[in-house]
Amino acid sequence: MLARGSWKWTYALPAAVAGAALLLVSSLWGVAALALAGFVVWFHRDPERTPEGRGVLTPADGKVSVARETDDGRLRVGVFMNVHDVHVNRAPLAGTVEAVEHRDGGHRPAFDKESERNERVRVTCDDYEVVLIAGAFARRIHPYVEPGDDLARGDRISHISFGSRADVVLPREYDRDDLLVENGEKVSAGETVVARRSPNRE
């Protein structure tokens, strides 16, 4: 299965056309261009996912790069998506979309501290937020949702083309004692639980 939206083909098409033409001139360059087209199609894959258990799911595939408190005391978990990771993002919890806000900005590497000034889309759902951050090569964030949409836990909410980052700002009742992951840990969108409240605290 491939990521939603007809735009996904626009990235692979130029390389595929160039590869077909180059095959007439140079098999080496033709094969290289076709391989690039194949990689782009593979990059836009969208596998089915099943949550591993109750709690807050990671919104993205990749490695945990941020686990800290925000200025207002809420816990924020960020995941850096490398070029080989699936870039379809998913809802960490069930909820209703209240706002989808786009902010222009730069395109610094998503793991860099300066990425706080990068282009981003903030999806606000009830008592949590997902922040989608464009990286050095990620020039397009494609939200799938709009205000008023009801989301189930693990639903697809967006896709970011090429390297980037996705953060979840957890509901206020979660704290560091509920955190199940640490920096550098590999996680899978819609499957890995990053935070869970203990039964006696719920």
From TrEMBL:
CC cofactor: pyruvate
Entry keyword set: Cell membrane, Decarboxylase, Lipid biosynthesis, Lipid metabolism, Lyase, Membrane, Phospholipid biosynthesis, Phospholipid metabolism, Pyruvate, Zymogen
Catalytic reactions of this protein: archaetidylserine + H(+) = archaetidylethanolamine + CO2
Cofactor note: Binds 1 pyruvoyl group covalently per subunit.
Gene: psd
HAMAP family in the cross-refs: PS_decarb_PSD_A
UniProt organism field: Halobacterium hubeiense
Stored NCBIfam families: anchor_synt_D, PRK05305.2-3
Post-translational modification: Is synthesized initially as an inactive proenzyme. Formation of the active enzyme involves a self-maturation process in which the active site pyruvoyl group is generated from an internal serine residue via an autocatalytic post-translational modification. Two non-identical subunits are generated from the proenzyme in this reaction, and the pyruvate is formed at the N-terminus of the alpha chain, which is derived from the carboxyl end of the proenzyme.
Major subcellular site: membrane
Function noted in UniProt: Catalyzes the formation of archaetidylethanolamine (PtdEtn) from archaetidylserine (PtdSer).
Active site: S164 (schiff-base intermediate with substrate)
GO cellular component: plasma membrane
GO molecular-function terms, A-Z: phosphatidylserine decarboxylase activity
Chain positions with Pyruvic acid (Ser) modification: S164
Subunit structure: Heterodimer of a large membrane-associated beta subunit and a small pyruvoyl-containing alpha subunit.
GO biological process, one term: phospholipid biosynthetic process
Name under which the protein is recorded: Putative archaetidylserine decarboxylase proenzyme
Site-annotated residues for Cleavage (non-hydrolytic): G163, S164
A Pfam family this chain is assigned to: PS_Dcarbxylase
Signal sequence annotation: none
EC number from the UniProt entry: 4.1.1.-
Domain of life: Archaea
Family: Belongs to the phosphatidylserine decarboxylase family. PSD-A subfamily.
